[in-house]
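Hi all, long-time lurker, first post. I run a small reading group and we've been trying to get comfortable going from sequence to structure in the token notation. Rather than ask abstract questions, I figured I'd post a concrete chain and ask someone more experienced to write out its structure so we can walk through it together at our next meeting. Sequence below, copied exactly:
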Amino acid sequence: MQAPIVGIIMGSASDWDTMRETHNVLEEFGVPHEYRVLSAHRAPRAVTEYAESAEQRGLKVIIGAAGGAAHLAGVLAAQTLLPVLGVPIESQALKGMDSLLSTVQMPGGIPVGTLAIGKAGAKNAALLAIAMLATTDPALREKLLVYREKQTQAVLDAKLEG
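-- Answer (accepted) --
Happy to help. Here is the structure in token form:
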């Protein structure tokens, strides 16, 4: 088993319903990854330890997902030089707008690549991480090319009834 190169961190176990999309895409592409629940607010020391050790452990990209106040991706990004992608989780109160704004509105100097709210964002976070990794991995680049070609062909082959 290969050591993980992508880390998926969620602020709550309930976020797994959304972040399973990230996991599934990374699995489909054969990208070794790990996933954990760590809260920026309820377990801040654990988040710091994770971020500070990530590069040394071989990670290349971290995906942070949280809802509500959604500071997880930003806290991770502040403590590592690795690229951090943020997935805002849909919340009950504001349908994920609170999560989106908390994730995307980072101060200049600490970037978080923020994706869409919910499952589309989770899927795209995996695909963006794969695209980043594919810049130095020709086999992964080829898999991504095939994926995109299949996606395009499925659109072109779509049949409408009526």
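A couple of things your group might point at:
The two ends are 50 Å apart (CA to CA).
The helical segments are 16-29, 44-54, 72-77, 97-104, 119-134, 138-156.
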